[in-house]
Amino acid sequence: MNQIVKNIIRFVVLVFIQVAILNNIQISGFLNPYMYILFILLLPFETPNWLLLVLSFFLGLSVDVFSNTLGMHASASVFMAYLRPYILNYLSVRDGYEQGTTPSILHYGFGWFFKYCLILVIAHHSFLFFIEVFSFSNLSETITRIILSTFFTLSLLITSQFLLFKK
Fold first, then answer.
1. 5-64, pLDDT tens digit by residue?
2. What is this structure's pTM?
3. Which of 21, 38, 108, 160 is most exposed, with the fewest beta carbons within 10 Å of its own?
4. Percent of the chain that is helix, strand, coil (3-state, to 5)
5. Which residue, among 88, 111, 74, has the nearest Cα to 42 in the 3D structure?
6. Which residues pair with 114 in a beta bridge?
């Protein structure tokens, strides 16, 4: 299947899952899973930075429209997309990334994918939750939300990798 069609389908499916199912899961306000960021994580390595930022903005804006969150997801998604090339450069494999591959467990293994996701999910969640609170009061509560939501989101992301990308 064409890479563009795959990404369009992935975009629509992830926004639907986020809006219809995951936005309704909030355990004591501390556990908020955000699986829609998988779209940004799985974009091909060759995606130009400007396109990455634009796609991330529209992804976050789509979630914002359905969640009534006034640009918080859009800004957090753009922040995550901005960091992505630097994180990929930091985690770069010895011979560089293969042309035509995507950042996934299938191509680069569990350890690499886990580190890649962990860094970007923490960045996304930190930005999102601090923007939501817009203060450093109740810092321990915000950090608890970041940690618990990161753990749950990472569990969903890695589970989806094992379900979708079987060898």
1. 999 999 999 999 999 998 887 777 778 889 999 999 999 999 999 999 999 999 999 999
2. 0.92
3. 21
4. 70, 0, 25
5. 88
6. none
